[in-house]
Design goal:
Blueprint (H helix, E strand, L loop, with lengths): L2 E5 L4 H12 L3 E6 L15 E5 L5 H11 L6 E4 L12 H21 L1 H5 L5 E5 L15 H22 L3 E6 L16 H14 L7 E4 L8
Parallel strand pairs: 1-2, 1-4, 2-3, 4-5, 5-6, 6-7
Helix pairs in contact: 1-6, 3-5
């Protein structure tokens, strides 16, 4: 049975990822900030295993790695993210947004790299955005886009090391999806986005590793 780890699975795209993979017969490992209040995540059918994780906590990330021990993870998807604020935001908001959107994806992937390398499929996806395109320095004056631009830069630095271990990875733009973060103005449903993401990851190989693609598999500009 293949396994997937979804980081940030309590709602929106993450919840739909956990649901679809579970229904497809995968073993699902999924994180939420509160195991006491798992919400819809706790009601999913299938082999779904929940873990508490605050990606702003180095201790939580280390504890997650300990909890998984030597459990192989075929596909690791970092989905956790925040919008932040309009413009540049204050110092506290900037620090939190850059931590969750740009730094934690790499920290989590690094902590679980042995688990991915021990699996059959060996795949990692970090959820980015087209709003990060052209913002690789993370200094464009728009907090969310800047944080995703910094994530893209950090991912490109780490990807060759992951590839050396036989791990294929991508930065993923899920589309403009209707979630609690985007509201009803977004036109794309989580179901359709996730269906596409799963198809992209199913086809992912080392030959594709290091790319920035959308949920349809189309190349996105850095």
């Amino acid at each position: 049975m293949p396994s997937v780890m979804v980081i940030g699975a309590s709602r929106g795209i993450g919840l739909e990822l956990a649901r679809q993979y579970g229904e497809a017969g995968w073993q699902v490992h999924a994180t939420t900030r509160s195991l006491a209040l798992p919400g819809k995540l706790g009601a999913l059918a299938g082999d779904v295993n929940l873990y508490s994780l605050d990606v702003c906590s180095d201790d939580d990330i280390a504890n997650l790695a300990v909890a998984l021990n030597d459990t192989p993870i075929d596909v690791l998807i970092y989905n956790a993210g925040v919008i932040g604020s309009r413009g540049e935001g204050d110092e506290t908001t900037r620090k939190e947004t850059f931590r969750i959107n740009a730094e934690a994806p790499i920290l989590v992937a690094t902590a679980l790299l042995d688990n991915v390398a021990a699996s059959d499929q060996k795949k990692i996806a970090v959820m980015s955005s087209t709003q990060g395109s052209g913002r690789l320095g993370g200094k464009g004056g728009y907090l969310y886009g800047d944080s995703k631009g910094l994530l893209n830069a950090k991912y490109r630095e780490c990807e060759p090391q992951w590839r050396e271990r036989g791990i294929a990875s991508v930065a993923l733009h899920p589309g403009y999806v209707r979630t609690d973060m985007t509201g009803m103005m977004a036109s794309l449903s989580p179901k359709k986005s996730v269906k596409g993401i799963r198809q992209v990851l199913a086809a992912l190989s080392l030959a594709d590793s290091g790319r920035f693609v959308d949920y349809k598999g189309k190349i996105v500009a850095w």
